[in-house]
C-alpha cells in the first residue's frame, strides 16, 4: 500500500478560493445563493466557502449567509450493499430554498450516485431556481450523467485507488491523498 | 441490526443511535413532502395476530413514509385463527418475498420463534408479544422523555440520572418490561409500583426498585410517572378487589397529580381508562405526553425499519 | 443357530464382577468364565456394562387414540433401543384406559409386538375427569393385571377422591401414582415461576403447586395406610416433603425424570417449545437437590415421562405448544451423564433406580434378582465409553421432540435382551417380524 499526497493545506485553500470566485462570477454576485454541504466533509467545505465568499465581498454577507447541510442517506440506492449508515441532520436556511440558487458542496465526486441522491432529496425540500455542484476533487469514473460546475482539482484515478480527504476540523490534519 | 425482538441486552450506544435516527425521521413530518424513498422496493408485512389499531396504524404510516410496499396481514378472522400455524404463516410470507415482518402476537416469544425458526429469512420486528416485550413502545417512550428534557439538543443524549416510576399491572405488561431494560441501558433509574399481586413474584434479577405504595413513590418526586393500562379481567382473577379500590390506591387522580412537580412527565402507552388508572385532568394536563408519544411512535418505527432494512443483511448477525 | 440361545462373553455386572451369560429358552442358564454353547448367538461383552432390563414406570404410548404421536409398536421400539424391557403405559389415551377392555387391548398389543413388556396403567377416575373412580378392580383383575393407577397429565385434585382412591387400591395391592399439580395454582402455567418467568413473560408454574399436593397426599397415605407414588418430582421443596414423609415411615415412593436431573429453566430463554414440559424445568438448585435425593434414596426411581408429540405441536409459539419430551431413547445416557459420570452413583445404583425398584413398585415379577441362574433373561448391555451426537436418527419412536438434539451424550445401548431373545443387537433394533416371532415362541 502506498500513500501519495496530492493536495496540501495551501493547495486546498487556493482551490476553495478559486471556486468561490467562480461561484460569484457565474451567479453574478452573491444574491439568493444557498450553499448546502453533503455530510460529512462537504458540510465543512460549504462553511469554508461561505466564509471566503463573505471575505471577498462583505456585501455578500447579508444576502448570502445561507450555508446549510443536506443529508442524502435516506435517498441512496445502495442501502442493502453497504453497512448501515446513521443519517446526519439536514439543515436548510430558514428562508428555504425555493427560487434560490443552490450550490451542492461535496469533497469527492466519483460515481455521481451521491449527487443523484442529493438532487432527489432537494426536490423533496423545495424548488430551487438552479442547482450547481462544487467539489474539491473530481476523480472520474462517473456512472450517471452528472458533472461538477466547480472543481478544485481533477484527479484521474483507477477504481482500485482510494481518495482520502482530510480536513482540520474533523481529522486534525489537512490534505488530500491517494492510497493505492 | 438483524431483528428487533426485545430491549433486553441493548447497549447504550445502540439505543441512543436509534433515538438519533428517529430525530431525523421526525424532521420528515415537518416537511412539505412527508415521504422518503429509502425503502422503495422493500416489502414490509404487518402480521397482527392480535387487534391493535394504534400500533398497526403507526407501523403502517412509518413504512409508507419510507416508501416501502406494505401489506397488513390481520390474522384475526383469517386462516391463522382457524388453526393455521405460525410456521405455515411464516413460510407463506417468505414465499411472498417479505423483507420485514412486524409481528404482534398474544404469545410471549412468538417473535423470537419466528426469528430463530429458519422458516423465514426476513427481518423480524416485535410489535408486542404476549406479556413479554414491546420494544418500539419503550423506544418511543424514551424518545419522548429525551425530547422533553433536551428539546432540539436531544441528539446524542442518553437519560442518565432520570428517575422513572412505572405504576400498574407490571406482571402482565410488555410495555413495562421493555421500558425496564431500555431505561437501564440509557442510564435512567426505574421504580415499579403495583399491588403485590401485579408484580412478578421474583424481581431479584431486574434492575429496578419496587414498592407497593404509589404515595410513597410520589414522595420521591420522580421525573417521570408512567401509568399502565389496567384490564378489567384482572379483577375476576382476584388480582385486586374492584376498580374503586384500585383507582384509590394506584390511580393517578387529581390529588396525586397536584403533588407532582410542574416538569414531571405523565406518560401512558394508551389506550387509557380515564377515571381508573388516570384521571381526565391528568391525561389532559400539560405534564401529559400522551399525544407526543403517539407522534413519536411513527418516527421511532421509521428509524427501526430503516435500521433493519438497510446495511448488509448477512454482515451483522 | 437358535435365535433364543444367546451367549454374552465377559460382560461387567452391576456389582463390578465379570462373567459370561448364557441364555436359553428365555432364562439365564449359566454364569461363569469361558462358557460356550454350539449354535448360540454370541455377543462380545468385553467393556460392556450389563444392566437388568430397564423398567419405565411412566411412559406415554398414545395408543389408542393418538397414533399420529406414537403407537404401542413405535414406543416399544424406542424403549428397546433405550435398554428397556418393560414400560408402564399411561392411561391418558382416547378412550382413556379406565376399563378392562382398553387395558387388555394395550397389554396384548405389547405382547404381540414383543419388544418390551407393556404394562398398562389404569386411570384413577373415569375419563380422567376427577369426579368418579374408574373400574379399578376390573382392571386389576383383567389379563393386563393392572397394579398402578394414575390420572397422569392431570392431578387427582379432589382430596376426598384421592383418599378413597388410596384406600380402594389397597384392596388389590395397587398403588396410586399422583401427578402432583394443584390445578388452580397452575392455570395457564407455562414454565417454572420465578425471576425468569417474570422476565420472559411466561405464566409461572410455582413449586408450591407441586409441593402442596405432595404434602397433602403423603398425609392422606399415612392416614389410610396406603401406598403412594409421586410422579416426576421436580423441586427441592418436594424432596424435603418426601424426606420428611419417609422419615415418618409413610409408604411413599418418588420418581424423577432424566430431564429434571439435567436441564434447567434457562433453556426457556430460547422460547424453543422442545423445552416445554410438565412439570416444567426448574432452577439449578432444584436439579442439584433432585440428584442428591436420587443418590441418597429419597427419590426411589428414574422414570422417563416419555411424551411424544407430532411436529406441529412443537413448531409454534411457546404458549401454544404441547407439554412433553420424548425420553426413552436418551434416558440411560442422561442418567449416566447426570449421575454416574458426575460420581454421585454407580452402576449398581443405576440398576436399582431404573430396574429393580420400579419393577417392585409396579409389582412386576422377574426383576428382583436379575443376574442369577434361573432368572428370566431381561437385560441390556451398554457401552459406557461411547459418546454420541444425539440426533433425530437416534430416535426410534414417532416423536422427535427431544430436548437433547444437538447435544453429545455418553453411553450407547449395544444389545437388549427381553424374555430371552434380542430386541437390540449391535446397537440396532432387531426387525419387527423377528421380534414378534420370538415373542410368539416365548409365549408358547
Ligand atoms: Zn405427569
From TrEMBL, chain A:
GO MF annotation, one: uracil phosphoribosyltransferase activity
Motif PRPP-binding, residue range(s) on this chain: 102-114
Keyword Glycosyltransferase attributed: yes
Keywords carried by this UniProt record: Glycosyltransferase, Transcription, Transcription regulation, Transferase
Catalytic reaction(s) noted: UMP + diphosphate = 5-phospho-alpha-D-ribose 1-diphosphate + uracil
SUPFAM superfamilies: PRTase-like
Keyword Transmembrane: no
All copies of domain Phosphoribosyltransferase, residue ranges: 6-151
CDD domains in alphabetical order: PRTases_typeI (cd06223)
EC annotation from Swiss-Prot or TrEMBL: 2.4.2.9
GO terms (BP aspect): regulation of DNA-templated transcription
Domain of life: Bacteria
Gene3D superfamilies in UniProt: 3.40.50.2020
PANTHER family to which the protein is assigned, alphabetical: BIFUNCTIONAL PROTEIN PYRR
Similarity comment: family membership: Belongs to the purine/pyrimidine phosphoribosyltransferase family. PyrR subfamily.
Known role: Regulates the transcription of the pyrimidine nucleotide (pyr) operon in response to exogenous pyrimidines.
Listed name of the protein: Bifunctional protein PyrR
Lineage, highest ranks first: Bacteria, Bacillati, Actinomycetota, Actinomycetes, Micrococcales
UniProtKB/TrEMBL annotation, chain B:
EC code(s) of this entry: 2.1.3.2
Residue ranges of every copy of the Aspartate/ornithine carbamoyltransferase Asp/Orn-binding domain listed in the record: 160-308
Catalytic activity: carbamoyl phosphate + L-aspartate = N-carbamoyl-L-aspartate + phosphate + H(+)
GO cellular component, one term: cytosol
Signal sequence, start to end: none
InterPro entries: Asp/Orn_carbamoyltranf_P-bd, Asp/Orn_carbamoylTrfase, Asp/Orn_carbamoylTrfase_sf, Asp_carbamoyltransf, Asp_carbamoyltransf_Asp/Orn-bd
This protein's record includes keyword Chaperone: no
Annotated L-aspartate binding sites: 82, 174, 229
Entry keyword set: Pyrimidine biosynthesis, Transferase
Family matches, as Gene3D superfamilies: Aspartate/ornithine carbamoyltransferase (3.40.50.1370)
Chain residues that bind carbamoyl phosphate: 54-55, 104, 134, 137, 270-271
Domain of life: Bacteria
Pathway, per record: Pyrimidine metabolism; UMP biosynthesis via de novo pathway; (S)-dihydroorotate from bicarbonate: step 2/3
GO BP terms in the entry: 'de novo' pyrimidine nucleobase biosynthetic process; 'de novo' UMP biosynthetic process; amino acid metabolic process
Assembly and oligomerization: Heterododecamer (2C3:3R2) of six catalytic PyrB chains organized as two trimers (C3), and six regulatory PyrI chains organized as three dimers (R2).
Record-stated family: Belongs to the aspartate/ornithine carbamoyltransferase superfamily. ATCase family.
Name by which UniProt lists this protein: Aspartate carbamoyltransferase
The organism of origin for this protein: Galbitalea soli
Source species taxonomy: Bacteria, Bacillati, Actinomycetota, Actinomycetes, Micrococcales
Gene: pyrB
UniProtKB/TrEMBL annotation, chain C:
Organism for this UniProt entry: Galbitalea soli
Lineage: Bacteria, Bacillati, Actinomycetota, Actinomycetes, Micrococcales
Pfam families: DHOase (PF12890)
Residues noted as binding substrate in the record, renumbered to the chain: 60-62, 92, 278, 309, 323-324
UniProt binding sites for Zn(2+) 1: 58, 60, 152, 305
A cellular-component GO term for this protein: cytoplasm
Cofactor binding summary note: Binds 2 Zn(2+) ions per subunit.
Biological role stated in the UniProt entry: Catalyzes the reversible cyclization of carbamoyl aspartate to dihydroorotate.
Enzyme class: hydrolase
Name by which UniProt lists this protein: Dihydroorotase
Amino acid at each position: 500500500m502506498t500513500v501519495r499526497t496530492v493536495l496540501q493545506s495551501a493547495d486546498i485553500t487556493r482551490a476553495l478560493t478559486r471556486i468561490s470566485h467562480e461561484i460569484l462570477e457565474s451567479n453574478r454576485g452573491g444574491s439568493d445563493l444557498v450553499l448546502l454541504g453533503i455530510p460529512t466533509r462537504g458540510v465543512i467545505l460549504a462553511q469554508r466557502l461561505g466564509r471566503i465568499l463573505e471575505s471577498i465581498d462583505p456585501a455578500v454577507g447579508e444576502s448570502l449567509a445561507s450555508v446549510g447541510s443536506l443529508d442524502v442517506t435516506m435517498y441512496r440506492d445502495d442501502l442493502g450493499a453497504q453497512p448501515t449508515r446513521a443519517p446526519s441532520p439536514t439543515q436548510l436556511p430558514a428562508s428555504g430554498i425555493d427560487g434560490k440558487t443552490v450550490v451542492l458542496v461535496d469533497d469527492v465526486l466519483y460515481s455521481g450516485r451521491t449527487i443523484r441522491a442529493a438532487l432527489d432529496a432537494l426536490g423533496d425540500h423545495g424548488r430551487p431556481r438552479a442547482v450547481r455542484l462544487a467539489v474539491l476533487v473530481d476523480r472520474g469514473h462517473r456512472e450517471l450523467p452528472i458533472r461538477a460546475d466547480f472543481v478544485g482539482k481533477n484527479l484521474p484515478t483507477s477504481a482500485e485507488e482510494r481518495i482520502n480527504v482530510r480536513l482540520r476540523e474533523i481529522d486534525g490534519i489537512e490534505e488530500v491523498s491517494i492510497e493505492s | 441490526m438483524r431483528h428487533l425482538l426485545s430491549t433486553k441486552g441493548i447497549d447504550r450506544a445502540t439505543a441512543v443511535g436509534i433515538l438519533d435516527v428517529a430525530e431525523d425521521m421526525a424532521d420528515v413530518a415537518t416537511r412539505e413532502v412527508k415521504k422518503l424513498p429509502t425503502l422503495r422496493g422493500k416489502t414490509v408485512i404487518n402480521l397482527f395476530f392480535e387487534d391493535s389499531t394504534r400500533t398497526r396504524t403507526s407501523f403502517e404510516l412509518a413504512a409508507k413514509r419510507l416508501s416501502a410496499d406494505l401489506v397488513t396481514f390481520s390474522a384475526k378472522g383469517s386462516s391463522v385463527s382457524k388453526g393455521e400455524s405460525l410456521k405455515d404463516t411464516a413460510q407463506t410470507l417468505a414465499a411472498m418475498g417479505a423483507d420485514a415482518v412486524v409481528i404482534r402476537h398474544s404469545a410471549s416469544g412468538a417473535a423470537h420463534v419466528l426469528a430463530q425458526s429458519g422458516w423465514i429469512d426476513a427481518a423480524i420486528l416485535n410489535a408486542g408479544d404476549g406479556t413479554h416485550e414491546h420494544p418500539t413502545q419503550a423506544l418511543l417512550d424514551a424518545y419522548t422523555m429525551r425530547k422533553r428534557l433536551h428539546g432540539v439538543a436531544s441528539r446524542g443524549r442518553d437519560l442518565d440520572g432520570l428517575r422513572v416510576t412505572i405504576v400498574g399491572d407490571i406482571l402482565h405488561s410488555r410495555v413495562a418490561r421493555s421500558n425496564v431494560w431500555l431505561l437501564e441501558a440509557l442510564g435512567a433509574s426505574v421504580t415499579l409500583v403495583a399491588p403485590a399481586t401485579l408484580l412478578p413474584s421474583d424481581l431479584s434479577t431486574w434492575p429496578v426498585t419496587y414498592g407497593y405504595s404509589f404515595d410513597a413513590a410520589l414522595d420521591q418526586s420522580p421525573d417521570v410517572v408512567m401509568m399502565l393500562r389496567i384490564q378489567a379481567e384482572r379483577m375476576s382473577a382476584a388480582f385486586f378487589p374492584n376498580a374503586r379500590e384500585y383507582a384509590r390506591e394506584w390511580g393517578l387522580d387529581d390529588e396525586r397529580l397536584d403533588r407532582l412537580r410542574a416538569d414531571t412527565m405523565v406518560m401512558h402507552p394508551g389506550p387509557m381508562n380515564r377515571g381508573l388508572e388516570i384521571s381526565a385532568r391528568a391525561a389532559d394536563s400539560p405534564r401529559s405526553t400522551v399525544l407526543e408519544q403517539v407522534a413519536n411512535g411513527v418516527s421511532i418505527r421509521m428509524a427501526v425499519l430503516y435500521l433493519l432494512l438497510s446495511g448488509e443483511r448477512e454482515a451483522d448477525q | 443357530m437358535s435365535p433364543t440361545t444367546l451367549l454374552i462373553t465377559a460382560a461387567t455386572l452391576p456389582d463390578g464382577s465379570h462373567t459370561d451369560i448364557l441364555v436359553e429358552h428365555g432364562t439365564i442358564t449359566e454364569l461363569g468364565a469361558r462358557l460356550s454353547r454350539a449354535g448360540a448367538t454370541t455377543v462380545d461383552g468385553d467393556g460392556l456394562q450389563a444392566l437388568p432390563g430397564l423398567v419405565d414406570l411412566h411412559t406415554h404410548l398414545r395408543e389408542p387414540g393418538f397414533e399420529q404421536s406414537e403407537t404401542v409398536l413405535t414406543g416399544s421400539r424406542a424403549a428397546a433401543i433405550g435398554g428397556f424391557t418393560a414400560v408402564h403405559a399411561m392411561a391418558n389415551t382416547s378412550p382413556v384406559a379406565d376399563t378392562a377392555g382398553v387395558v387388555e387391548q394395550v397389554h396384548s398389543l405389547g405382547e404381540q409386538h414383543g419388544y418390551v413388556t407393556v404394562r398398562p396403567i389404569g386411570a384413577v377416575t373415569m375419563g380422567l375427569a376427577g369426579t368418579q373412580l374408574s373400574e379399578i378392580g376390573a382392571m386389576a383383575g383383567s389379563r393386563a393385571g393392572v397394579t398402578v393407577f394414575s390420572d397422569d397429565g392431570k392431578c387427582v385434585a379432589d382430596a376426598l377422591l384421592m383418599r378413597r382412591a388410596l384406600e380402594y387400591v389397597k384392596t388389590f395391592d395397587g398403588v396410586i401414582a399422583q401427578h402432583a399439580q394443584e390445578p388452580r395454582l397452575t392455570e395457564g402455567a407455562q414454565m417454572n415461576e420465578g425471576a425468569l418467568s417474570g422476565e420472559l413473560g411466561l405464566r409461572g408454574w410455582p413449586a408450591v403447586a407441586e409441593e402442596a399436593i405432595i404434602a397433602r397426599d403423603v398425609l392422606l397415605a399415612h392416614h389410610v395406610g396406603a401406598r403412594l407414588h409421586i410422579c416426576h418430582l421436580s423441586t427441592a421443596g418436594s424432596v424435603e416433603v418426601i424426606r420428611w414423609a419417609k422419615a415418618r415411615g409413610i409408604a411413599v415412593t418418588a420418581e424423577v425424570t432424566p430431564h429434571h436431573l439435567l436441564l434447567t429453566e434457562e433453556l426457556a430463554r430460547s422460547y424453543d417449545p422442545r423445552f416445554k414440559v410438565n412439570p416444567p424445568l426448574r432452577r439449578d438448585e432444584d436439579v442439584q437437590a433432585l440428584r442428591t435425593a436420587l443418590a441418597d434414596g429419597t427419590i426411589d426411581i428414574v422414570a422417563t415421562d416419555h411424551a411424544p408429540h407430532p411436529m406441529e405441536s412443537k413448531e409454534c409459539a411457546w404458549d401454544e405448544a404441547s407439554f412433553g419430551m420424548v425420553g426413552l431413547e436418551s434416558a440411560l445416557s442422561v442418567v449416566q451423564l447426570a449421575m454416574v459420570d458426575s460420581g454421585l452413583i454407580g452402576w449398581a445404583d443405576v440398576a436399582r433406580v431404573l430396574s429393580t425398584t420400579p419393577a417392585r413398585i409396579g409389582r412386576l415379577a422377574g426383576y428382583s434378582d436379575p443376574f442369577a441362574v434361573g432368572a428370566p433373561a431381561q437385560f441390556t448391555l451398554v457401552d459406557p465409553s461411547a459418546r454420541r451426537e444425539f440426533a433425530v436418527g437416534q430416535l426410534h419412536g414417532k416423536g422427535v421432540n427431544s430436548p437433547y438434539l444437538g447435544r453429545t451424550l455418553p453411553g450407547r445401548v449395544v444389545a437388549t435382551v427381553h424374555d430371552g431373545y434380542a430386541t437390540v443387537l449391535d446397537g440396532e433394533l432387531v426387525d419387527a417380524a423377528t421380534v414378534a416371532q420370538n415373542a410368539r415362541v416365548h409365549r408358547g
